[in-house]
Amino acid sequence: MTDERDTRIQRLHALREQGINPYPNATTRTHTVAELLAHFDELKEQGITGSFTITGRLRLLRDMGKSAFANIEDGTGRVQVYFRINDLGETAYQNLKLLDLGDFVQATGYLFNTRTGERTLHVVNYQLISKSLRPLPEKYHGLEDKEIRQRKRYLDLIANGEEARQVFVIRSRTISAMRRYLDRHDFIEVETPILQPLYGGATARPFVTHHNALDRDLYLRIAVELYLKRLIVGGFERVYEIGRDFRNEGIDRSHNPEFTMMECYQAYADYNDIMKLVEEMIASIAQEVKGSPRITYQGTEIDLTPPWPRIPLLDAIAEYTGIDANAYPDRDSLAAAMRAAGYEADPKLGRGRLIDDLMKAMLRRGIPALKQAFFMIDYPLDISPLAKLHRSTATLAERFQPFIGGLECGNAFTELNDPLDQRARFEDQMRQRAQGDEEAQVLDEDFLEAMEIGMPPTGGLGIGIDRLAMLMADQESIRDVIPFPTMRKSSEEM
Known about the structure:
494 residues, alpha+beta, CATH 2.40.50.140, BirA Bifunctional Protein, domain 2, 2 domains, nine-stranded mixed sheet, five-stranded mixed β-barrel, 19 strands, 35% helix, elongated
């Protein structure tokens, strides 16, 4: 690498000695590569010498003595170009030897087909517009390593081209399709603070920072829920936000400490209404992004057409683990049953969190029926501090999570709007924190004051954009759909 870089720097100096600026301020382009190729025959007939100018990265260069062929690639495609000493002149032609693969060039010329039919730009003049000082990755060696691809995304995009770019195009289109769906259904997009005086709205540990001018600690938000509900209190009836959340948690195939969420809240709705919204919205997104409500994720074909099955959480656990949580009404008896069946039972966790751990263990088993699209509904009340009490079962909350392809894609409730009940739930969460549960929620006095002003019956939803992008792009890891994921220190940084 060092020798190659030194050689490129020497060539850069050689160009400068000739008065050539290897990084000019301005460039000219009349056509993208895609435009040139899409209308090649028509443009070839209409064009005159020097009428077409393209720009892009040099990907191949073959010197044949008094002529040379090269490939130039921009963000839309790749095209062959042809250099000839008679057209360029001796000096300009010899300066081709000072170019390296990876350099950006501007090339002007006319169109023709080679004897083999290759569509080609015959260059009459060219200009170096950005000198590359490091070699491109080897196409068949350097970028097979997943970690390198994720750590140095720019190399991934260069080496793996359209395949790598398409993942992020799908991500972008997924977000745009979601936004269009919500806008069509009269939701108003809003923005809420990322730096918060008190974190809340989810079960997670926060990142803490310090504001010097105010001399106070602030938290990077873990969710936007409590702020959006304040807007519902204030009179908005349908609101949503798509933005970044930050949770101080571990990293695995479905978790990144910095991630994108969509949260929306609808007044005069319950979790049944939100289930209908979710299944219709995700089917609509798939239709728009993939052309069909049927997708394939990691080898499994999934039909997103509504309606999706509604599966009670405790029923699923009983069926797939053999543990009927209803038979163990307290934490200790459930923990004993879990250990007897071979499951871990963390002594710091309450009964609801143990049930949540059982659900996660169940999902890890890869049960075919649980790889389709469905809603897991009706969760324990003690792990649902922001959800309304179930209308028919006193120990459960009206809460659901959408699952697709084995991925937990979101969280939703019939929102709790009783301020006294909400205060009692927060106080219970604080007791759980005192007993060692660092992810239990904190009591937010300002939010409780807003609720006491009065909040209408409301349905709420959070959807993980990154996991939805994983599904639409058929990617196994969340790090494959985040352009710059959080990574552990590399060996070079140790």
